[in-house]
């Protein structure tokens, strides 16, 4: 895994562990052997460390995080050996030097890099902290403030910036190895060797740490590792290196063993897994998408169009009236201008993006589009009409997509003569912001169309997850049950604020009723009315339906379940509380006090239960896909790994017991896995194994 090659008096150690040269078993052994050989050989004046293939070391091997400490690859030992090494060591960086990779480089005497290399300590994203000296060395190089910024955001910096900060000693414009060798020869005789561990930290005043502690209350609410990172960075300022180094080892293990880190690591792998579609080969041909058409310039259509404009793809947006078109275009422009005001875009970017947008009142203008996305009102008749017309006018091979969130994509596809070209692309509001894209594979959707949409999702910065056709697909089908249970909790005696507070405490930015107020109460009401009519049931008349009938529709009318001030903070409304109480009295319900624990168990339980049904029916391919959907589409805290992973952390039997206790029938799959002492991750493995056979 580590190749030794001599270049005159320089020993080059090349790390080969594709695809990203993670610090896996074998790598430390190879590096240590190379370093020992170089130390013992008088003919060697210096050592260069370099990555083979596309990158330097992208970090510790996350797959080994579950191993006992003694069996984990010895990154800290390698770092110590480098720090104490008697001859100059040069880390030659390209691709990404992340986490343990950057820590190796920091323990070398020097670092050189190609200008587009990226350097960072992203451990916080995995619920851990730099555990091989990063918390102690980075502040000693870039100062306390910048080190905190890098370690708390986890975002990498470009080598050019690293050079300005002194983190990189030289930028190599030509071949990296040749440049690194030349550099190593220049410094071969330097003594004493520069050691970062011997430096002091710049700018580590108590205020810097106090401000960081204040900031993470908002940016990393409820998370463990950010505060450990701040504590350790403060030690780098105030304590001897050795003390900070030892404390780091202990805190790293504490974070690594936490459920939060397990949740974030699960997300890391499951997100990558969800990009893979069983049965779809890597060589599936892709369609070339150069022009996009969007039908409907409302909130959804406008947001969808922006995704493609941002990626440099021209979009034709079609509306039925001049007024609606002008309004839609105005909103898009205002969104861009507000990003420009915040410094996220330049004025030129705004104009460049707007110039890619062609407004039209004629659907015929979509005849050259490679992908057409319909984003009109949620009505099957209207959608069928649009798809009939699209079938007649769209060019051969164009992808015809619907943004429906509930309707049957098979039924929509059936009105066309090319159902293999039809797919659902369910964006989440605000569509230009939310990362999730449910990609709805209908009965006849071709592999090429599916693979093209997955690739396109990546291109426009979305996390695409393939789902099957059913009412609400994955996300909305689950959230429907969750909403029902939340209303039941209020029926029984909880206040909406109690319910929301419990979910906020679990880590969701919004509880179910805050979400309802934001989405608009009338939307959910229309769906409930529609369903009741379909099933021949009486019109819905719960307490929430009664609130809608008072004319309060949520944030957009200044209030719904809650009142809102200009900061959009929800405040309970006495009249709505009275309405709920009157409702209970009328139904003969004696309200009882309901604990936050019960609220959390019931709400997560209903999500998990519906998730299990969805999984069993094959609507979702994997439990991990459901987790990705819930984290990116519904704000489930990433550090809890999504509802299905969270179920495993609780123990599936506990979920089953809670469901039964509160009058629900557990899904057969959930009951089976609980009985067998398994988790949904076990189920994913079972399904993957059986599909490979
Ligand atoms: N450990 C194990 N596997 C890793 C890995 C890691 N650190 N980083 C990436 N991989 C795997 C991925 O799971 C993926 O596997 P797959 O092909 O089987 O799905 C494969 O490598 C390629 O990864 P990506 O699909 O993400 O490739 P990209 O080119 O899009 O991105 C990357 C490359 C920027 C390096 C990205 O993979 C990444 O961000 N990796 C994680 C980096 C990280 O967090 N490092 C810190 C680890 S913690 C640490 O170092 C602790 C230490 O301080 C003690």
Automatic annotation (TrEMBL):
Top-level lineage group: Bacteria
Pathway annotation from the record: Lipid metabolism; fatty acid beta-oxidation
Limits of the 3-hydroxyacyl-CoA dehydrogenase NAD binding domain: 292-468
Domain spans labelled 3-hydroxyacyl-CoA dehydrogenase C-terminal: 472-564
InterPro entries documented for this protein: 3-OHacyl-CoA_DH_NAD-bd, 3HC_DH_C, 6-PGluconate_DH-like_C_sf, ClpP/crotonase-like_dom_sf, Enoyl-CoA_hydra/iso, NAD(P)-bd_dom_sf
CDD domains assigned: crotonase-like
Assembly mode: Monomer.
PANTHER family the UniProt entry points to: 3-HYDROXYACYL-COA DEHYROGENASE, PEROXISOMAL BIFUNCTIONAL ENZYME
UniProt-recorded name of the protein: 3-hydroxyacyl-CoA dehydrogenase NAD-binding domain-containing protein
Organism: Deinococcus multiflagellatus
């Amino acid at each position: 895994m580590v190749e030794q090659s001599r270049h005159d008096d320089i020993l080059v150690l090349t790390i080969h562990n594709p695809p990203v040269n993670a610090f896996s078993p074998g790598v430390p052994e190879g590096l240590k052997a190379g370093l020992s050989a170089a130390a013992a050989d008088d003919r060697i004046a210096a050592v260069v460390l370099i990555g083979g293939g596309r990158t330097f070391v992208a970090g510790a091997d996350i797959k080994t995080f579950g191993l006992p400490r003694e069996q984990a690859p010895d990154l800290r030992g390698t770092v110590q050996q480098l720090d104490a090494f008697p001859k100059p060591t040069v880390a030659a960086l390209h691709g990404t030097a992340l986490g343990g990779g950057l820590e190796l480089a920091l323990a070398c005497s020097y670092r050189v890099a190609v200008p587009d290399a990226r350097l960072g300590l992203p451990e916080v994203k995995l619920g851990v902290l730099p555990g091989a000296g990063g918390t102690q060395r980075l502040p000693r190089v870039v100062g306390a403030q910048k080190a905190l910024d890098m370690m708390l955001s986890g975002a990498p910096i470009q080598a050019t910036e690293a050079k300005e900060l002194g983190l990189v000693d030289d930028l190599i414009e030509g071949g990296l190895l040749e440049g690194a060798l030349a550099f190593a020869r220049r410094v071969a005789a330097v003594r004493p060797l520069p050691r970062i561990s011997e430096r002091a930290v710049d700018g580590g005043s108590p205020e810097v740490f106090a401000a960081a502690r204040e900031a993470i209350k908002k940016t990393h609410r409820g998370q463990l590792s950010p505060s450990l990172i701040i504590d350790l960075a403060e030690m780098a300022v105030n304590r001897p290196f050795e003390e900070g180094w030892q404390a780091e080892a202990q805190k790293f293990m504490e974070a690594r063993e936490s459920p939060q880190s397990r949740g974030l690591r699960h997300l890391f792998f499951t997100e990558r897994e969800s990009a893979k579609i069983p049965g779809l080969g890597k060589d599936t041909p892709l369609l070339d998408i150069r022009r996009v058409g969007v039908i409907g310039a409302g909130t959804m259509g406008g947001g969808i169009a922006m995704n493609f404009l941002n990626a440099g793809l021209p979009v034709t947006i079609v509306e039925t009236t001049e007024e609606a078109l002008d309004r839609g275009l105005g909103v898009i422009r205002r969104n861009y201008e507000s990003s420009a005001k915040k410094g996220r875009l330049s004025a030129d970017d705004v104009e460049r993006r707007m110039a890619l947008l062609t407004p039209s009142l004629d659907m015929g203008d979509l005849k050259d589009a490679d992908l057409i996305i319909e984003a009109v009102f949620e009505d099957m008749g209207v959608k069928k009409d649009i798809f009939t017309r699209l079938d007649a006018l769209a060019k051969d091979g164009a992808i015809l997509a619907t943004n429906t969130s509930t309707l049957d994509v098979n039924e929509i596809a059936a009105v066309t003569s090319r159902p293999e070209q039809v797919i659902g692309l369910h964006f989440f509001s605000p569509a230009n912001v939310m990362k999730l894209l449910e990609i709805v594979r209908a009965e006849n959707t071709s592999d090429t169309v599916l693979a093209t949409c997955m690739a396109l999702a990546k291109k426009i910065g979305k996390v695409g997850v393939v789902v099957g056709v059913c009412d609400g697909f994955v996300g909305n089908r689950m959230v429907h049950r969750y909403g029902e249970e939340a209303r039941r909790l209020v029926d029984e005696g909880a206040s909406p604020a109690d319910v929301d507070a419990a979910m906020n405490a679990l880590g969701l930015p919004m509880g179910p009723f805050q979400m309802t107020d934001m989405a608009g109460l009338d939307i959910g009401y229309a769906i409930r009315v529609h369903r009741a009519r379909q099933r021949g049931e009486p019109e819905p008349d719960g307490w929430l339906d009664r609130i809608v009938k008072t004319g309060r529709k949520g944030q957009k009318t200044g209030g719904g379940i809650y009142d809102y001030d200009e900061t959009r903070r929800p405040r309970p409304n006495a009249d709505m509380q009275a309405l709920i109480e009157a409702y209970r009295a009328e139904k003969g319900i004696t309200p009882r006090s309901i604990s936050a624990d019960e609220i959390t168990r019931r709400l997560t339980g209903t999500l998990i239960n519906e998730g299990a049904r969805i999984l069993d029916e094959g609507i979702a391919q994997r439990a991990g896909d459901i987790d990705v959907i819930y984290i990116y589409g519904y704000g489930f805290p990433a550090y809890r790994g999504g509802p299905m992973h969270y179920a495993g952390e609780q123990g599936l039997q506990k979920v089953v017991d809670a469901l039964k206790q509160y009058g629900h029938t557990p899904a057969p799959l959930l009951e089976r896995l609980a009985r067998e002492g398994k988790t949904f991750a076990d189920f994913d493995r079972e399904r993957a194994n059986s599909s490979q056979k």
